[in-house]
Write a structure and sequence with these properties.
The chain is of the alpha+beta class and 183 residues long. It has one domain. 54% of the residues lie in helices and 25% in strands. Strands 1-2-3-4 form a four-stranded antiparallel sheet, covered by helices on one side. Strand 1 and strand 2 form a beta hairpin. Helix 3 crosses helix 6 and helix 3 packs parallel to helix 7. It is globular, with a radius of gyration of 20 Å. The N terminus is likely disordered.
Length: 183
């Protein structure tokens, strides 16, 4: 009998924990990063496919430059020239934090701040993918503006994870194309 009660309690607790992981909850955590400009834990919000792609792209771009004796991307990411074995051991989380720091640094230098956000729509593509439409209000000094963005979230192991937002995807594409340009 005690085992049955323990089993029921475990199922109830686990179902509550799973239910609390919503696409909106994950997105709100990410948007809090934008408004608070605090990067801690950002990688845990991203889907594994995006993180794997980021790792592969940055590693390959660094390797490509190194093959031609160029180390600009290494210096940009690590602050110095590093060995390829160190690059291979570098986590996607490290790369994401480096990119996010660059994005936030650029926003700060332009005095651009996200001042408010509101979810204005949701498109449930299937049980494991949802697109959420968000209105971001921003300020830059005395100027105010809004932007409408669509965020895609996917379910991984019963948790909702964010596909890379447009800003991060664009930055990765620029890094990749810039790394492959010969000087």
């Amino acid at each position: 009998m005690h085992y049955l009660i323990a089993l029921v309690c475990t199922v109830l607790l686990n179902s509550t924990a799973v239910a609390s992981s919503t696409p909106e909850g994950t997105l709100e955590k990410y948007l809090s990063v934008l408004t608070g400009q605090e990067l801690k834990g950002i990688a845990s919000l991203m889907d594994s496919g995006s993180m794997d792609s980021l790792k592969k792209t940055i590693d390959e771009s660094i390797q490509y430059q190194a093959n031609f004796g160029e180390y600009g991307l290494q210096r940009r990411v690590f602050g110095q020239k590093v060995s390829m074995s160190r690059v291979a051991k570098t986590s996607a989380e490290f790369y994401l934090n480096a990119l996010a720091n660059e994005i936030l640094k650029a926003a700060r230098s332009q005095h651009l701040k996200v001042t408010d956000r509101k979810i204005i729509g949701k498109i449930q593509e299937n049980d494991d993918m949802v697109h959420i439409v968000v209105r971001l209000k921003m300020s830059q000094g005395d100027h105010q503006g809004t932007d409408i963005l669509v965020y895609t979230l996917v379910k991984e192991k019963d948790e909702w994870k964010l596909k890379f937002p447009t800003t991060i995807k664009q930055m990765v594409m620029v890094i990749e194309s810039t790394a492959r340009q010969r000087r």
